[in-house]
Design brief:
- The protein is α+β, with helices and mostly antiparallel strands.
- It folds into 2 domains: about 160 residues, Helix Hairpins (Orthogonal Bundle), CATH 1.10.287; about 140 residues, Bactericidal permeability-increasing protein, domain 1.
- Strands 3-4-5-6-7 form a 5-stranded antiparallel beta sheet. Strands 1-2-9-8 form a 4-stranded antiparallel beta sheet.
- The longest helix has about 70 residues.
- The N terminus is likely disordered.
Amino acid sequence: MRRLALFAVAVVFLMLLFPGKIVPTPPPVYAEPLSETTRQLLEKGLSVVEIDREIERISGLREETEKSIAQNETKLAERQLAIAAQREKAGRVLRAYYMGQKEAMLGVLVNFKSLAGLLRSWDLMDTIFEADRRTLADFNREYEEIREGQDKLKKDKEELSRVAADLERQRDRVAALQAEIQNAIDGSEDPALARKQLEEMQSYWQTAGLYEVRRHFSALAKAMNKLPDWIQDHPEALKTKGLSTTLTLTDTQLNEFLRAQSELLKDFTIAFKPNLLSLQGKSGSMEVAVTGSYTVENEPKNAIMFHMDTLVFNGLTLPDTTRDDLVRDFDLGFYPQQVMAYLKADSVTLEDGKLIVKLKIGK
């Protein structure tokens, strides 16, 4: 498995350095259509590869979180030392006010016999009061920075606990899948052939499949980022009634728009169905099928966000970790405020051939 992974990294690196000069690993060729048992075996093999990739990502995230916690603990300790001095200064200022020392100083002003003496005393007292204000302000700033640091430290530790639990869960998944794969190979009519098919598919996915899928999703995300411009050029897609606006986009319009954005999307087709979006695509010997849906999200900002429910590569269903990775890395959302600054998505509906977004005025 490790040799396959290293080989995959080397091939993809060369593909990036010399685009068009590396011939990707050819797809596995089978003498007969895959049986259901073999299909499940290959599917589990791809899941192991992808979950291993997720484990690597989570491990890196854990290291970053641990580093962040250590840095924040150091900064917090430094802040606590700094605030000790500020606390003492602030304490002296407050004690002076409570014990009437400042009132006594103000009383001195009335005893001056000349205007010049009064002005000199006033300037001196103004300087003292300004220093007092800075002392109290510095103390308040240091206190707020410590409080924010403590909050961040708490969140980082909660995130570390979540990451550690997720890492353990993914490792358990891999262990269970590897046991199932081994049992399936041992129970097959030809264990050597079964293992060969498994390794060929894993190699094909690592050296070519994953690269191509991510390349096409990148093109799709870049195209979707330009959709607001298309809508502005096609005002007929927007219908206004009173204070509400409705955006209606057909799958035919969306497909024409996407294909005009990139050659990579020429053989990809999106279809809208009730509560479902489906995408079918082909590139050479690779076929991808995606299903998902849209929802309105308001955090971190108002948007129509895409949620991927299934991802199938050459007839093999990929795990949730692959779907999550693609959604995380490639934004397929739609942001109404990029069309008009005062518009906000209120609801989204998928019907046969149509995407309907209800918009309202909002910030």
